[in-house]
Inverse folding.
């Protein structure tokens, strides 16, 4: 095995995005590049999420020509395959071999959990651009771990309050896949909903990857709730929403959900079946503010498609890193200083004002979006209300 | 570590139309069972005749769905889509048999397992290269997209009634094929006594190729028919195929009758499991399989 | 011959023992991972290669060993003298229960029932309150060795701990397969009816080897969770079982060195291919198919074939 014999020769392909910038740096002043190591999925079902985050990040970096405070920024990436084992292996390689300054990723919470110790122990900053597991900014929070996305609690808690108060819905059936994120999201919804006089008629937790929801839908019809609240994502979201419509329930019982239910490419696969669904999330690509409009326009110009929520999270990750580096004058060696700089990051994000909580999770607005037919065959999420302003995850159990 | 909430209460029927509710769930179960049956027939046929265990059977399910996606986008009506994707999948199956499986007959099951495991990787990745990794969906044929009122408040998706009818039709067609045609006779002979077929002067290799093509076609057709209900992504066949393995093991490997009864048994049991004890439904089919194998190690309808 | 073989193994052990002096960090952990999967694959070869029992659910025991370790540590049982035997014992017990069911069947039914029962274990890991569901379980520390000067938190110490256990396991498995018991297993593989007629109780032999293989897989799982500080249900899925079976085949069935070589080859290939392309599954699948079609004996078979002037060990 060449692995053991040639420790110094890395045979691994690396995508050096910032290379032109290295060449353009001043003669005689060869600044050490800042390295970002992306641990994201580029294969299998989550590939589009990994690509969207990467694109968003690169859009933000290209705005500053891959250069901050005189230092070029280099992006390294390798496919995590959404596998904790592979993700951890790449993380360790990035930390020990490539000596990256920031880890960016991952998409899935189990991969984030696997990476946590390696990042924390080596004092490498890890910017989570999606994984929403609540523990990462609660019990398992770390001085070196930041999140630019959301916690699973965030969109669902205010949705519970909003449905009970503003929609006047008191009796709902809830459904989510039987796994950690599904449970966390439903708990958050119940917390808000029950405290405001709501009643949960039934809770159903189908297996992750369930292909036939018909028995669950029959149960819902039988219970006759005022509304249904669900969380599904990816392939499950497409299956559930279509089967819900096919069963004729769409016109009988309104469907509410966590925003991931009808986001990005999932929404285009659902098509008409999704129209009318109301969900809560921290952004929608139709948001009417100048920052968001610029982001959508630039992204479309660069990549030829409308950005998804994941693109936004990648974009904000880029901004956060850039701003922190500017604050330290490009210094990444003083970990404490860089940590403070990251904690103090504040900017106007497409989603609204962005800043971090004490436990390193974004404090952000949660919007209610409704899927509508926008004409010309376009189906999109439009914002109909603000469920919560500057909402902060409780960060229970984190003492930073 | 996140902690579980206490088990949720069962969704209780609030009204007195319990009989209607049970009948609907029964219909759900039969319909799901018939979908499993479409998949199980191909698997059990290939095993019964060729002695091959095809882990990549789910890949043909996926191929059927993706072929239907392309054909629908080309503007084909659904009926034409079913026929064309069947033909294309049979062709892919035949090529697969000629290029790979042909060379490992007579080797032990391990080679079959690993070869077909390799095929899964190849098919998944090829589908990703051709159609992309994004989740996609096949639109439902317009005529079948509505729902029909049944038992009071309940409505039933028209398309699922079509799937039920289609499953029964294919089952009947297969029965005729096997019991009333020359190919069927050869298949029956090949399954029970391979040497007899050779002695009859029939080219057994040709029979194997045909049967594998038929199996691939059956899997693909079930993929095509299931696609409007499911979502399409590379590897989409892998969840349902494991349940199909359970079906054929419970029914007895190689037995078509076993495949039918195993499918209905699992379909109905799984549906009621989901409806009544959703937490346990994912393990229930496996527990059932264990119970059956405890009493009948060769399945309910094994031959010999 | 035996002395040459012992020399060879001593050389391999010495080389592996020298690894921490040559490399550190990533490559040390990479080598450690290969050691663990070599043990995992070899334990499966006891079943698949030596006895002809093709299990498509071997990852279940690997997972049980890993989860047992993580859960015990989380519960505050951190002494290695408890954790290690408990992890191995629990895997062995699970293998006894599952094996007792599986060996009632043969052939394809055996493959299917191992697959289904492993899925059962997978769903338990996915749904039980102890295991953290899909998020997996984090370990905050490795077990304490209880010996002065040996701190498993130190990656080099942990490497030697892995090497010791893996080396011992290979030693035991080597003795096992050349013992009368091992020869009986190979007899069962060749012709079970004949062995039964000779008075061997094939069922007892099969169950015994199933339990032994499960115990070694559990040991590999114990090491794996300690290496990663993390375990989640994806390590128990049937794809994981398929992968380890692939390792066995790549290296060569029915040998102990084969699975070890296969594990190194598989993990190395996966790492190299996936760093060049996101479509790593395609070349892996093609390699697998080609090996089945043309190089049945795997790498070790090829090597032996070349030495005996026949390139294909079909």
């Amino acid at each position: 095995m060449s692995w053991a014999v040639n420790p110094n020769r890395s045979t691994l392909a690396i995508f050096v995005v910032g290379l032109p910038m290295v060449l353009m740096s001043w003669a005689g002043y060869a600044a050490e590049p800042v390295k970002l190591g992306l641990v994201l999925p580029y294969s299998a079902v989550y590939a589009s999420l990994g690509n969207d985050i990467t694109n968003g990040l690169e859009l933000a970096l290209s705005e500053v020509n891959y250069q901050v405070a005189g230092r070029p920024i280099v992006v390294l990436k390798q496919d995590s395959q959404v596998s904790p084992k592979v993700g951890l292996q790449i993380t360790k390689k990035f930390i020990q071999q490539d000596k990256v300054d920031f880890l960016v990723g991952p998409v899935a919470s189990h991969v984030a959990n696997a990476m946590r110790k390696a990042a924390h122990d080596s004092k490498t900053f890890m910017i989570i651009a999606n994984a929403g597991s609540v523990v990462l900014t609660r019990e398992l929070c770390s001085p070196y771990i930041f999140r630019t996305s959301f916690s699973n609690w965030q969109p669902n808690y205010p949705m519970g309050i909003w449905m009970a108060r503003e929609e006047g819905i008191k009796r709902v059936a809830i459904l989510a896949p039987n796994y950690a994120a599904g449970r966390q999201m439903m708990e958050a919804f119940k917390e808000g909903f029950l405290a405001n006089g709501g009643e949960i008629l039934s809770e159903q937790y189908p297996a992750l990857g369930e292909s036939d929801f018909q028995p669950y839908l029959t149960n819902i019809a039988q219970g006759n709730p005022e509304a249904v609240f669900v969380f599904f994502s990816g392939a499950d979201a497409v299956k559930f929403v279509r089967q819900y419509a096919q069963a004729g329930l769409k016109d009988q019982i309104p469907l509410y959900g966590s925003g991931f239910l009808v986001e990005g490419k999932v929404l285009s696969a659902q098509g008409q079946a999704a129209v009318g669904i109301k969900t809560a999330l921290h952004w929608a690509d139709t948001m009417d503010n100048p920052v968001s409009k610029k982001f959508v326009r630039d992204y479309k110009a660069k990549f030829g498609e409308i950005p998804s929520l994941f693109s936004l999270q990648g974009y904000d990750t880029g901004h956060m890193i850039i701003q922190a580096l500017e604050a330290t004058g490009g210094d990444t060696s003083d970990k404490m200083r860089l940590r403070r700089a990251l904690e103090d990051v504040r900017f106007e994000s497409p989603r609204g004002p962005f800043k971090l909580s004490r436990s390193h999770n974004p404090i952000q607005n949660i919007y209610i979006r409704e899927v509508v037919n926008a004409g010309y065959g376009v189906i999109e999420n439009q914002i109909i209300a603000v469920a919560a302003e500057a909402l902060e995850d409780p960060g229970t159990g984190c003492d930073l | 570590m996140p902690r579980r909430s206490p088990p949720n209460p069962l969704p209780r029927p609030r009204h007195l139309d319990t009989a209607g509710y049970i009948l609907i769930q029964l219909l759900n179960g039969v319909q799901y069972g018939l979908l499993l049956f479409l998949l199980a027939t191909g698997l059990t046929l290939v095993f019964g005749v060729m002695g091959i265990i095809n882990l990549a059977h789910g890949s043909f399910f996926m191929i059927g769905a993706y072929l239907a996606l392309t054909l629908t986008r080309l503007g084909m009506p659904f009926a034409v889509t079913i026929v064309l994707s069947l033909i294309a999948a049979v062709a892919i199956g035949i090529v697969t048999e000629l290029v790979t499986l042909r060379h490992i007959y007579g080797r032990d099951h391990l080679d079959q397992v690993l070869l077909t495991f390799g095929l899964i990787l190849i098919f998944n990745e090829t589908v990703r290269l051709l159609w992309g990794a994004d989740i996609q969906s096949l639109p439902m044929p317009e005529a079948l997209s509505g729902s029909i009122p049944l038992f009071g408040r309940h409505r039933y998706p028209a398309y699922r009634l079509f799937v039920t009818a289609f499953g029964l039709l294919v089952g009947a067609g297969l029965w005729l094929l096997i019991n009333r045609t020359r190919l069927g006779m050869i298949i029956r002979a090949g399954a029970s006594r391979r040497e007899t077929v050779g002695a009859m002067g029939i080219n057994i290799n040709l029979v194997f190729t045909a049967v594998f093509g038929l199996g691939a076609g059956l899997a693909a057709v079930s993929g095509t028919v299931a696609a409007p209900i499911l979502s399409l992504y590379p590897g989409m066949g892998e969840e349902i195929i494991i349940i199909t393995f359970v079906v054929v093991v419970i029914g007895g490997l190689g037995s078509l009758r076993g495949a039918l009864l195993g499918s209905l048994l699992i379909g109905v049991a799984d549906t009621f499991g989901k409806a009544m004890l959703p937490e346990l439904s994912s393990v229930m089919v496996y527990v059932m399989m264990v119970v059956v194998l405890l009493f009948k190690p060769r399945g309910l309808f094994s031959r010999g | 011959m035996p002395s040459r073989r012992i020399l060879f193994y001593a050389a391999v052990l010495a080389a592996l023992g020298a690894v921490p002096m040559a490399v550190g960090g990533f490559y040390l952990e990479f080598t450690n991972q290969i050691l663990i999967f070599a043990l995992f694959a070899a334990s499966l070869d006891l079943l698949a290669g030596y006895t002809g029992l093709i299990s498509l659910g071997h990852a279940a025991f690997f997972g049980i060993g890993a989860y047992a370790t993580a859960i015990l540590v989380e519960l505050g049982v951190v002494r290695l003298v408890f954790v290690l035997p408990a992890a191995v014992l629990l895997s062995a017990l699970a293998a006894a229960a599952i094996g007792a069911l599986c060996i009632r069947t043969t052939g394809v039914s055996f493959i299917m029932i191992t697959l289904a029962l492993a899925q059962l274990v997978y769903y338990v890991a996915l749904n039980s309150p102890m295991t953290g569901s899909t998020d997996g379980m984090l370990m905050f520390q490795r077990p304490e060795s209880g010996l002065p000067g040996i701190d498993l938190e130190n990656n080099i110490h942990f490497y030697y701990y892995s090497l010791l256990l893996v080396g011992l396991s290979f030693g035991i498995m080597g003795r096992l397969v050349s013992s009368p018991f091992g020869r009986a297993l190979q007899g069962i593989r060749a012709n079970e009816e004949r062995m039964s007629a000779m008075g061997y109780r094939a069922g007892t032999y099969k169950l015994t080897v199933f339990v032994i293989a499960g115990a070694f897989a559990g040991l590999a799982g114990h090491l794996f969770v300690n290496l990663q500080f993390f375990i989640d249900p994806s390590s128990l899925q049937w794809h994981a079982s398929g992968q380890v079976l692939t390792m066995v085949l790549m290296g060569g069935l029915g040998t102990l060195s084969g699975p070890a070589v296969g594990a190194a080859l598989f993990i190395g290939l996966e790492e190299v291919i996936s760093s060049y392309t996101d479509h790593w599954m395609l070349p892996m699948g093609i390699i697998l198919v080609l090996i089945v079609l043309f190089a049945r004996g795997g790498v070790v078979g090829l090597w032996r074939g070349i030495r005996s002037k026949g390139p294909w060990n079909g």
In short: Residues 2-150+289-356 of chain A form a domain with the Rossmann fold fold (CATH 3.40.50.2300). The first helix of chain A runs from residue 2 to 5. Chain A has two domains: 2-150+289-356, 153-281+365-391. The radius of gyration of chain A is 21 Å.
